[in-house]
Amino acid sequence: MKVLVSGGTGFLGRSLVEALIERGDAVTILSRRPESLPIPFRGLAGTMSWDGLDLSGFEAVVHLAGENLLARRWSEEHKARIRESRLAGTRRIVEALEAASTRPRTLVSASAVGWYGPRVDDVALTEESEPGSGFLSELCRDWEARAREAEILGVRVCLCRIGVVLDRSGGALERMIPMFRRWLGGPLGHGRQWVSWIHRKDLTRILLCLLDREDLAGAFNGTAPRPERMKDFAAAVGRHLNRPSWLPAPGFALKLALGEGAEVVLTGQRVLPARLQEIEFHFEYPTLDQALEEILREEVVP
Fold first, then answer.
1. Res 38 pLDDT > 90
2. For the stretch 235-244, what's the b/e string if a residue is b when 16 or more beta carbons lie within 10 angstroms of its beta carbon?
3. Mean pLDDT for all residues in the chain
4. What strands lie across the sheet with 106-112, from one edge to the other?
5. 301 partner at 20 to 30 Å CA-CA among 59, 138, 214, 253?
6. Does the structure show a pLDDT above 70 at 35?
């Protein structure tokens, strides 16, 4: 398959690009500055610029690009960058799909469990649940709506609502491990909020499944079947690192550091991958202990 991947050198994109190349697909990475992009992948078909984007001849597009949500404290300017990076990029993809002389059949576009809004209840949320409220929910709704505009072009659109992605080389765990090593690990805030997580390898396999299964379309929750409360999540990390989980990061400190963005880590959603379970998708790491055993086995400290 000839596949174009935006965000292909990011935390999520690297794993997907490697998996696609390994199975023999012809992969091109979409970048704003392809001339300065280090090519870390053996067998990569090439790179392409957003300027003059031409999707003719590609069979599928995976759109993962977007500004890091917690790269800095949320200001109105940073929130605007977050929104623009997702909506403008998705709009450009759809415009290029429309203009393509030979149109790709499939668009797989990232979304997020932020669709369901910040929650303080224990309600199990599936793809059939209503969207929530707040900045992230509104962003995800607009983001998905922009991607679904490709459906009127005859393109199959799959939306992956991604949870907290776990791996040692990025994301939440990369930030947590050093704190636990220094005996300073613990839950964020009060610890009662839900963490809907997914092992990066399972997320990669979900994206491949959405690419390959032409009978699938619409929204899919990219989360493991068993979300955990933050206090239990932190305790599990500590257990696998042979460290206690005794020092919570107070909510007021997170709000000082992240501003409104602290809501992302101080609230959560109990999200279940109902549609993936309906098609009997096999999770290699369905429980947090299984995921952490694989991810942290080389990180254990005495």
1. no
2. bbbbebbebe
3. 91
4. 46-49, 26-31, 2-6, 60-63, 106-112, 156-162, 218-222
5. 253
6. no
pTM greater than 0.85 (yes/no): yes
Q: SS3 of 3, please?
A: strand
Q: What is the CATH number of the domain that holds 149?
A: 3.40.50.720
Has residue 196 been placed in a domain?
A: yes
Query: d(Cα 260, Cα 157) in Å, to the nearest integer?
Result: 31
Asked whether residue 302 is domain-assigned, the answer is no
Tokens read off for 39 = 């090519």
139/127 Cα distance (integer angstroms)? 17
Over the stretch 217-266, which tens digit does the pLDDT of each residue have?
999 999 999 999 999 999 999 999 999 998 888 776 777 677 776 787 88
DSSP one-letter string for 59-87: SEEEE-----TTSS---HHHHHHHHHHHH
Total number of domains in the chain: 1
**Main-chain dihedrals φ then ψ at residue 3, nearest 5 degrees:** -125, 135
Is residue 156 one of the residues assigned to a domain?
Answer: yes
